[in-house]
Amino acid sequence: MDFGSFKNLVLQREMHERYLEIAEENYNYYKKLLHKDAPHEISSISYDGLPSGNGNAMSLDRIYMYLQKYESMIEHETWTIENLKKLEKEILAKVMQLDGIDQKVVYLRDIKGMKLQEIADELKYTLDYIKEISKRNKNPLFTH
Q: Same domain for 80 and 112?
């Protein structure tokens, strides 16, 4: 699985977290819809003789189908988010295993998404030296 950069990995996780929120909202909507026709107390009597009610426009089997669909989505998104978080932790742990300047360069390049010139400016090293360190640590984070 190639995410390209740590920022993309974080964006993927955030996107799946939003999908999870939407799936949970939809699940709760259909769950309420399922119970809409449940017996409840009569609040007033209709004297006009015309039928009235709070009928559902959707059949119970269709509501149940949507509940299953969103329940499955919730499970899938939860699993995906857990795995992305695990991958983020693994990547950060790999960066922390590096020493000194290598750790700083890899962190700034792969986690923060900075360009080599920006890293050189921030760390106050020459661009050639930063390129050498970067080449020596050629993206070890995304070797899954």
A: no
